[in-house]
Amino acid sequence: MASVQPDSNAVFSIRRLWPMDIVFYREHLLRLDPESRHSRFGGGVSDTYIDAYVDTAMRPDTLIYGSFDEARLIAAGELRVLFGTWPLRAETAFSVEKPYQDHGLGDQLFTRIITAARNRGITRLGMQCLSHNQRMRHLAQKHHAEMTTADGETEAQLIPLTFNPISLFEEWMGEADGTLSRLNPWKPTGLN
Ligand SMILES: CC(C)(COP(=O)(O)OP(=O)(O)OC[C@H]1O[C@@H](n2cnc3c(N)ncnc32)[C@H](O)[C@@H]1OP(=O)(O)O)[C@@H](O)C(=O)NCCC(=O)NCCS
């Protein structure tokens, strides 16, 4: 596969993925390099596993935000509501393609996911990663997660604040920005 070098001035906006975007999500997860794929799924998984996983990802209990470099989905954050739990709980996971890692996309996606969880009345947001995944652990800590580590895995738990008009506005603004930048061909792109 040809390697991609992002424009060093790029700023990639984030938007919610809809069912017609499932093809982009599948391609994104399949493109992850072996180490990132291992980190994302907590172990080595096959393409067939990813195919089956993506088939479950566009259900009404799942919300995905993604960032695009032109027509290519390069990063995603997933929120899965655990139905049947009360108070409502959810789990989250993140993936950023290697050339785009360490440029703030994971942090931005995390912020969007926390706001979305907050606005949906989720009282506990869980995230699991391998315990040597320093970047993910750092981001979880930055977002005030409580962390426990056992058997090579770290479990992070966040308690989103109760929603308010500002958090609703934040979600709306984020979505409007993502949509507008898709429509506006003159908006500069580049990484921060
Ligand atoms: C983990 C992941 C989602 C993070 O996304 P990202 O876009 O690379 O991360 P960001 O650039 O937003 O933030 C990285 C942060 O970690 C810090 N960091 C980087 N390397 C680090 C290290 N070795 N130790 C501690 N912190 C580190 C950075 O300084 C940055 O912190 P800051 O925001 O306070 O400046 C991404 O790297 C990824 O997809 N990895 C593979 C899949 C994966 O691990 N998924 C998580 C399982 S759910």
Notes on the protein architecture:
With 192 residues, the protein is an alpha+beta fold. It has one domain: Gcn5-related N-acetyltransferase (GNAT) (Aminopeptidase, 3-Layer(aba) Sandwich). It contains six helices and seven strands; from the N terminus they run βαααβββαβαββα. It has a seven-stranded mixed beta sheet with strand order 1-2-3-4-5-7-6, sandwiched between helices. Helix 1 packs antiparallel against helix 3 and helix 4 crosses helix 6. The two termini are 25 Å apart. Residues 185-190 have low confidence and may be disordered. Coenzyme A (COA) is lined by residues 36, 39-40, 93-96, 101-107, 127, 129, 133-136, 138-139, 142.
Could you give a quick summary of the protein structure above?
This protein has 192 residues and is α+β, with helices and mostly antiparallel strands. It is built from six helices and seven strands, in the order E-H-H-H-E-E-E-H-E-H-E-E-H.
